Amino acid sequence: MSDVRTFSLPSRPFQAEVELPGDKSLGHRALILAAMADGDSVVAGLSSGADIAATRRAIAALGVGGAGDAIVSPGIDAWTAPRAPLDCGNSGTTVRLLAGALAGSPVSATLVGDDSLMRRPMARIVEPLRLLGADVSASPAGTPPIVVVGRPLHGARVALAISSAQVRTSVALAALSADGPTRLSSPPGFRDHTERWLAHLGRGRAEGEATFIVEPGPVPPLDLQLPGDPSSAAFLWAAAAIRPGSRLVTPGVSMNPGRTGFLDILDRMGATVEVENGEPVMGDPVGTVTVTGAALQGILIEGALTVRALDELPLVAVLAAAADGETVVDGASELRVKESDRIESSVALARAAGGRARATPEGFIVSGKDAAAPTTVDARADHRVAMAGAVASLARGSSVSVAGFSAAAVSWPEFAEVLEGLWS
Ligand code: S3P
User: Fold this and answer.
1) How far is the CA of 375 from the centre of ligand 1 (A)?
2) Residue 30 burial class via C-beta count within 10 angstroms: exposed 0-12, middle 13-18, buried 19 and up
3) Ligand 1 center to 398 CA (angstroms)
4) Alpha-carbon separation of residue 143 from 9, 310, 354, 374, 410 (angstroms)
5) What is the pLDDT along the chain (424 residues), one digit of tens a residue?
6) 311 in contact with ligand 1, CB cutoff 6 A
7) Cα of 339 to ligand 1 centre, how many Å?
8) Which residue has the least CA distance to atom 11 on ligand 1?
């Protein structure tokens, strides 16, 4: 079966309002916290993507029931040992967060995944979890399989060298089962969803921008509606930004400050971005975002802004190809260890979008507006590269075929239809 999808999108502007899939980062957190709680939770708006399905399957293997929005758990102390390794598919968030939750549970488990996941770095969770007394190990190369032997944990001081929300959350989930508080710090810029939710649930408090103290203890069952995913919305926001005169409204999107870097980038490149604040979900901000397209210009992206737009940087490469002048992305070496090497993927995307591009050790440089003949780009088994490839056709002004497009189903199986539907 050929897995190539060709995008040839109208050149006229569009006006649309789109309902987004539930936020993937928050979906993983909600499922795992609901699995740790003793009782019945309701989590509405879970995305239909394969990553969320992987977390759902993994908690089911620990004895957590429920269907649809319902999650029915006996609580972490009554989790059952899985009979086989937990297959986390393509989802780094599933492996890293579950390893943390399992560390202080009564069960042992092995965590594995697809080819891409089996290459991703895990020493970043193994080392800090051991500071809490966890029995966690990775392969000699520091990759999965991850083996966790659940055991009693103690509180610790954990100072992380990288600004990773997955690592912070892994440690925080373990710290809930410890015998005393854990003090967690890292460089800033990370999405602090977990910290906000734990503070809301009475399980900790923030100290300044990047330190959080986890107070151990049980979490209550959850009852919440997930906000829309800004990392999915970004593909549609980019489509609006690239076509001057287009206007896209996305209600109910997560506005966590660690997720809004891409909106700041759109604004600085020349698009109009309006945010109307909505009702926060467990202390985490939500808003309605409207993006109006305009002529774009290249900018410099570095420091905390890079971290706050991390998952959207391949898409920035596409936008940069549609902009006047040069765009420089720096401080983004983490892109090398995502679902694909996203520095190389971003360069390929920028070229597919009609720009000139080159990789640098910690990012990439794109200058915009060049070729316009139809082309092909490889999704590299990476959902965000597949979706950015579709948007590249708008920047290029001719068709772009995405080889391996089905990778998009990891986070947004309905994406192609939603994108093509913007003009209807
Ligand atoms: C995520 C954190 C980020 C992000 C990933 C999801 C999360 O990863 O890239 O897609 O849900 O915590 P890092 O923690 O590796 O920066």
Assistant:
1) 31
2) buried
3) 33
4) 40, 21, 36, 39, 21
5) 479 999 999 999 999 999 999 999 999 999 999 999 999 999 999 999 999 999 999 999 999 999 999 999 999 999 999 999 999 999 999 999 999 999 999 999 999 999 999 999 999 999 999 999 999 999 999 999 999 999 999 999 999 999 999 999 999 999 999 999 999 999 999 999 999 999 999 999 999 989 999 999 999 999 999 999 999 999 999 999 999 999 999 999 999 999 999 999 999 999 999 999 999 999 999 999 999 999 999 999 999 999 999 999 999 999 999 999 999 999 999 999 999 999 999 999 999 999 999 999 999 999 987 767 889 999 999 999 999 999 999 999 999 999 999 999 999 999 999 999 999 9
6) yes
7) 11
8) 25
User: Among the atoms of ligand 1, which is closest to the Cα of residue 28?
Assistant: 11
Residues taking part in catalysis: 311
Residue 164, ligand 1, Cβ within 6 A: yes
Q: Is the CB of 165 under 6 A from ligand 1?
A: yes
Q: Tokens for 129, please give them.
A: 């979890």
Beta strands in 304-404 (DSSP E): 326-329, 356-360, 363-367, 375-378, 400-403
Q: How many CB atoms lie within 10 A of CB 140?
A: 6
Residue 334: count other Cβ atoms within 10 Å of its Cβ.
18
Global confidence as pTM:
0.98
Q: Which two tokens stand for residue 275?
A: 């945010």
Interatomic CA distance for residues 62 and 245, integer angstroms? 51
